[in-house]
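Incident review: delayed structure delivery

Summary: a single-chain prediction request sat in the queue longer than the usual turnaround. Root cause was a stuck worker, restarted by the on-call engineer. No data loss occurred. The affected request and its eventual output are reproduced below so the record is complete for anyone auditing the incident later.

Affected input:
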Amino acid sequence: MEEIVVVDNPKPWVWSEIAERVAETEGWAVSDNDYNCWRSAFGDDFILRVFLTKDDKFICSLAIATYPSADPEGSPLTTVGMFYTAPEFRGNDFGTQMFFDLVEREEHNGHNKGLIGVEAMASKYAARHGFDKESGFVWDCYINDGTDFKPENLERHPDIVIKRALDTDFEKLVAYDQTIAGKIDRRKYLNSGIRVLQSYSLAALNPAGEVIGLLRGRICAQYQLYIGPLYADSPEIAESLLHEIFVNTPRKPNLFTKIVIAAPSTNLEFVKLWSKFCGREAKKAGSMHSQFTKEVLQVPTERVFGIFDYCMSYV
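Output delivered after worker restart:
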């Protein structure tokens, strides 16, 4: 077996290689800037573990982060993501060893743990690692060429005020996010997420100044654009946010190689909206499972049109 070097929170160039590799071999939309975003949001509660060969060839990776509970009596949520093994090293149990070592750390004992599992791995996560409690929906992933979209089909509804998230009262954004996140406190994650480089975040407000929607678009490896979060209290709000970012800013869909979004399978209004945006029936590229070890965290799927990210988030 290859002699390995274990590195926690490696140099940025290692993350850049991972981001490019997962985009090339798996089609994942991961940003070169996500690593710094997560480290800023979670601090010492975040680890990106990497196995390298002695001559610095990448073998595999796994990231883990812990969100505090919104309830002092509640359980934190430890999320697991970026589980990836380079194709040339698969079949040697490197990834399995890493998963057990990192996910079963003593400091995470008693935590609820969660992940977004791809179809091929969902049953293995359940059987081997106890991620056997699933949400009543899956995350349907839509991946389209940037040239597939027709932003002129989108409507801007006049009673909805849209402004940059960074120009919006942050406490109002936190309060709104809490209605989506439920039992978990995501203040630091939200603050870091809307500030990440090469991203653009918008908030929708009603005439009274209350936040009623949130969108972020972030540029990922291979110049993909990932839309998430896309939270909205109605389909009209979601549509107005998409209209704003693709019609009223220079970020035209055809500038990107791909546009990626993942929505709850039970949100049929999302499918209608994405089909309208595409000018034809939206076709999903695949599905991912929302899996937990102790308790399924409930998600208001009718208001979730796109998950924040599918690496270190759950909604």
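Verification: The longest strand covers residues 133-145.
Action items: add queue-age alerting; document worker restart procedure.
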